[in-house]
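Re: folding output
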Amino acid sequence: MSEKSRLRVGINGFGRIGRAIYRINAQRDLFDVVAINDINPDGANIAYLLQYDSTYGRLEQPATFEQGELVVGKQRSALHHFPNVGSVPWRQHDVDVVIESSGHPDNGAYLASGDGGIDYMVQTYTADPGGAVKTIIFGVNEEEFDPASHRRLSSSICDTISLAPVIKLLEGRFGVVGGSLTTVHPWLNSQNLLDGQGATWFHPQDNTSAHALGRAADNNLIPKSTSAVLAAEAVFPGINSRIESFSFRVPTSIVSGAVLNVELEKPTDRDGVMGLFAERERTQERPIFQSVEAPLVSIDYRASEYSANIDQRWTSVREERKLRMVYWYDNEWGYASRVVDLVGLIGDR
């Protein structure tokens, strides 16, 4: 990484997550986004989609497209439209970190190889990034980050950055024998408004889920597999053999929820579990946990920056070891907040 007071960042893929990352950084002002690559060839449309968001509302400052650049206040970002991340002239823009948020595995694999000569890569939405990529999940293993050896990083997936800190906390205090996780996840842009072909490239090995995901997203609860626990293997080896997982894709636009049932090694009660999370909330450096007892519904957690909002109304312990927990997370904003934190961690070192 070059000697600068601020990181120069490139974003590859300016969809839901890429734009959320941009918006969050615009609020925090941690780094400069100097280059953006997206296959949308219409720069004015890219500015429009950043300016007006159906989920999060209008951007505070106007976003415009001027002479090949996205302009928001004093921030100017060169726009490119290459289908392959390897064709983007990142070095021309003196980029320190590329955030790979296109979601396409080929782009992540290219950046992970190091062929592009970029100092650091942060790959988003990767359940299994491979051995060359270090997965960092805040609230679990951020202290392991070594800027000298960890140049290719994964920020995991939204379901896992919520689950893993919960498991970490429970494992450390009570021990976790096993259990099950059920998540509910809003629709994604890979789904259809009317029945049609499923996005089979996303889970090519899972035809059952892929076919079901081709059904109309706006009026179906769609059962599917999930990689929430599998992705946690990167920070909790063996967890996939202890906790099974299942998911529903639901007809809402934002905020995921989860029901976690686990058997604990050590006995406790509801107060013991709630006290554990309250204690961590008081001492945490970043917004990982928030305990909530108000009768909220999913949309109330829109734009929450917390990795896991623990809905303590539903926390219960039976027979001293059988724990049920419910938590919520904004699958875009909460996740993108941790991506921004990860780039900030690179800058801090």
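--- second protein (sequence, then structure) ---
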Amino acid sequence: MNLIASFDDVSVTRGRNKVLDGVTLALPAGRIIGLLGPSGAGKSTIMRALVGVQANVTGTVTVLGVPSGSESLSKLVAYSTQSSSVFDDLSVLQNLEFARVMLDAPKSRVSQVLDEVGLKGLEKRLVASLSGGQRNRVSLAMAMVASPQLLVLDEPTVGLDPVLRSEIWAIFRKLADSGKTLLISSHVMDEAERCDRLIFVRDGKVIANDTLQAILEQTGTESAERAFLALARRSAVL
């Protein structure tokens, strides 16, 4: 299996609390990987450790063969936080131009990503005037402008209605089909069905890392939500 990243016995402590507890993971390349669990489970901490911005990390996080956060990864890894990383007082085009200049990406990428995320025709609109789904597309476009190999997206569909969520996931699928790897966090269990691989997290620990089908077979359940609950009960007993 071709890997894009790995965690080896990674822990993160915040005050007296262990936010991550001995996480070991292998992330396959060219897949949509769902990172699922309740709020406070450690999903965002895993993502921050992956992109090299998390403090107090012990263990080893490797991305594309080098330590996470390495300068050589600046264009190869993109991170979009749960709060849309956009400037409301700028237009769509100005937001993308800002990202392009910061990442030293080719000028041609702006037009390409506008097309890829379905924002053609909205270039001059102020981001403040956009709908929630359009704002999410701008944030995604900014993450894509440098043609990263790995996109780390924290709750990218939160607050969207089912139609907009479906449209955003269609974009994710196209990216994965083109060879990109996406790590997408969510607390909405039905989004698990859209992922190629799932990582279930609870109380700072990984309780599953496999395909949905394999997890369902392992737990003898019929949905991601029931599988998570079964695994959570098992982990609480151990």
